Amino acid sequence: AKVKNIDLKSLQINAASHDTLQVKASWIVTGMVGHWGHTHQRVNQYQADLTLSPTDGSWKLTQMNVLEENRL
After folding, report:
1. Residue 51: CA atoms inside 13 Å, Cβ hemisphere, count?
2. Pairing mode, strands 58-71 and 38-55
3. pLDDT tens-digit map of 5-60
């Protein structure tokens, strides 16, 4: 698979503290997938609960719970 574009559709902060940020996000991914000797373009929409935490001086995604995945 090769991701060509990620389009963030929504971002809602659910909780924040000095060491975590919990958000609900929705995004669309456009890309190419290959199998059986040929490729297809795919467009999928995702919704997930994400946890971000500071690591080595920057915020990193530390947990992801995918709530929904739809092929568009």
Report:
1. 10
2. antiparallel
3. 999 999 999 999 989 999 999 999 999 999 888 999 999 999 999 999 999 999 99
User: Are 67 and 26 contacting, i.e. CB atoms less than 8 angstroms apart?
Assistant: no
The pTM for the full model equals: 0.85
Long-range contacts of 63-69 (CB under 8 A, 24+ apart): 67/24, 69/44, 69/45
Q: In angstroms, rounded to a whole number, what is the distance separating the alpha carbons of residues 63 and 26?
A: 15
**DSSP per position, 1-29:** -EEEEEEEEEEEEEEE-SS-EEEEEEEEE
